[in-house]
């Protein structure tokens, strides 16, 4: 199966999907708000348009598949604000539509497990905005929508090694705190698998098999590098930006059974250990 994928917001995850699809013969279109990125993305085979987020998007009429990877704002989803009416009018045109959301929609569960059936009780502004955006996309009649709730993303250029090497990494200790993660290559794998098996209305958690305390990941990175263990700091007294501190407001373990059972996904990096080892080997 091949087609034309339009990625509105050619970010980190969308680029990973593009690099998976292009060798298979797909045509990949994308948008960016930064004109300086157009040439770089074009050299990677992605037909990219500098789109400011307002006004028409001519590429929309060329797409058989649509991926939305733009975050909502306080005023709502900017893609729906700009293109919602046209997307609704073209709903029958699309074979598959994907929306990249976040596991932050589940809120805090004190380290307990959540799955796609868990009630959405976000405790952060970002999480509440995502819940509203999911609902707004799902309200478009006839749109073959698939929602992907992504855990914390890491991958090439987004690992802990740089900070560990620079001596700026910290092990923030908050008892009971765990996060779920996902390597960007596995995000691309899940999206491609869903495109091959469309199931409009489906929601998938996209995470690995090993929710873990953040300090363990930092410690493992230092061990792989053969460097000293970064210092431990108590969360209650550690100096952190409000944004960084907000990530610790929620603790949960996210189940990923559905991507395996329904999409046949076998994770490339089932835990952060395999993922970090691969990142280091690639260097």
TrEMBL record:
<keyword id="KW-0520">NAD</keyword>
<dbReference type="InterPro" id="IPR036291">
    <property type="entry name" value="NAD(P)-bd_dom_sf"/>
</dbReference>
<protein>
    <submittedName>
        <fullName>NAD(P)-dependent oxidoreductase</fullName>
    </submittedName>
</protein>
């Amino acid at each position: 199966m091949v087609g034309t994928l339009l990625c509105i917001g050619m970010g980190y995850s969308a680029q990973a999907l593009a690099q998976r699809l292009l060798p298979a013969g797909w045509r990949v279109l994308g948008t960016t708000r930064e004109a300086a990125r157009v040439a770089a993305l074009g050299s990677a085979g992605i037909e990219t348009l500098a789109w400011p987020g307002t006004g028409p998007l001519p590429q929309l009429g060329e797409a058989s598949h649509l991926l939305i990877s733009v975050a909502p704002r306080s005023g709502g989803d900017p893609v729906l604000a700009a293109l919602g009416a046209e997307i609704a009018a073209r709903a029958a045109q699309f074979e598959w539509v994907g929306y990249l959301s976040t596991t932050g929609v589940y809120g805090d569960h004190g380290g307990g497990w959540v799955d796609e059936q868990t009630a959405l009780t976000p405790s952060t502004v970002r999480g509440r905005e995502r819940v509203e955006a999911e609902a707004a996309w799902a309200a478009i009649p006839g749109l073959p929508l698939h929602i992907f709730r992504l855990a914390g993303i890491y991958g090439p250029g987004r690992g802990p090694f740089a900070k560990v090497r620079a001596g700026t990494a910290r092990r923030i200790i908050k008892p009971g705190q765990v996060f779920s993660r996902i390597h960007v290559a596995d995000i691309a794998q899940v999206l491609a698998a869903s495109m091959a098996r469309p199931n409009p209305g489906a929601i998938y958690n996209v995470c690995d098999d090993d929710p873990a305390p953040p300090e363990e990941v930092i410690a493992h990175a230092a061990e792989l590098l053969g460097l000293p263990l970064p210092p431990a700091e108590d969360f209650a007294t550690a100096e952190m930006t409000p944004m960084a501190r907000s990530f610790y407001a929620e603790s949960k373990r996210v189940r990923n059974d559905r991507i395996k059972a329904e999409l046949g996904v076998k994770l490339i990096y089932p835990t952060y250990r395999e993922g970090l080892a691969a990142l280091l080997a690639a260097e």
